[in-house]
Amino acid sequence: MSIKVILADDHPVVREGLRYAIEKRGGEEVKIVGEASNGKEVLEISQKSPADVYILDVSMPELNGIDTAERLIEADPACKIIILSIYDSRIFVEKAFRCGVRGYILKESATEEVIQAIREVYKGRFFLSPVIAKYIVDGFIGKMQNRDGTSKETRLTKREKEILQLIAEGHTSKEIATKLNLYLNTVHVHRRKIMHKLDIHKYADLVRYAIKEGIAKL
Q1: Which residues lie across from 57 on neighbouring strands?
Q2: How far is the C-alpha of 194 from the C-alpha of 49, rounded, in Å?
């Protein structure tokens, strides 16, 4: 039986390269059952045709990879997720593993590592790109275990993080209301709550925060 994979990245060239690598090196062992360009599409595809392993770009529009992973895991705690990223900083790796993903690979080496990552994660193991493993792994698991879970971002609800991403991507309140099927006033209320929880009082600072924390990208 093949390992079913859903591949998500908002850059078609990246998806094409990974698909080629998976099909060439995975043979009959791995089968791509769906592709998506954003987190919303991943959730829609997963409802119709769940995968064994999900490969998610960390910085997708509308719903980023981390928030998508959280929703997938909430729906199915046993699902296995690999984050695909250009970021090799500790903060992004910690955030990914804290939400329950099993693998983290860098885009620059993804085509060489993707099959090994899929195999390891499918077996219930963890996989981290070797190029960053040596300075990421040491100490960060202990740090995660000692957190009190009250960081600024964890205070936000899933809906608030979704709205924060859309704000940072330049969508107006009216556009956000339309996208999420909300009343305009509800979006305004969420925005006020977000700014209060983060102790941020300027729109530009809110956007900078979202980009810095990897919730949205430039």
Answers
A1: 84
A2: 34
Helix (H, G, I), strand (E, B) or coil at 39: helix
Q: What percent of the chain has pLDDT above 70?
A: 90
Helix axes 90-98, 65-75, angle to 10 degrees: 20
What is the token pair recorded at 155? 């205070």
Contact 99, 68 (CB under 8 A): no
Q: 4 and 51 in contact (C-beta within 8 Å)? A: yes
Which residues, 6 or more positions from 2, have their beta carbon under 8 angstroms from its beta carbon? 28, 29, 30, 31
The span from the CA of 112 to the CA of 44, in Å, is 29
pTM attached to this predicted model = 0.72
Cα dist from 205 to 155, 174, 201, whole Å = 18, 21, 7
Q: List, as one string, the DSSP characters of 185-211.
A: HHHHHHHHHHHHHHT--SHHHHHHHHH
10: confidence class by pLDDT, cuts 50, 70, 90: very high
How far apart CA 26 and CA 118 sit, in angstroms, is: 9
- CA 11 to each of CA 8, 82, 102, 154: distance values in angstroms, whole numbers, following the listed order: 9, 17, 23, 29
Q: Which domains does the chain have, with CATH numbers?
A: 3-145 (3.40.50.2300), 153-212 (1.10.10.10)
- The CA distance from 69 to 80, in Å, is 9
For residues 201-206, average pLDDT: 87
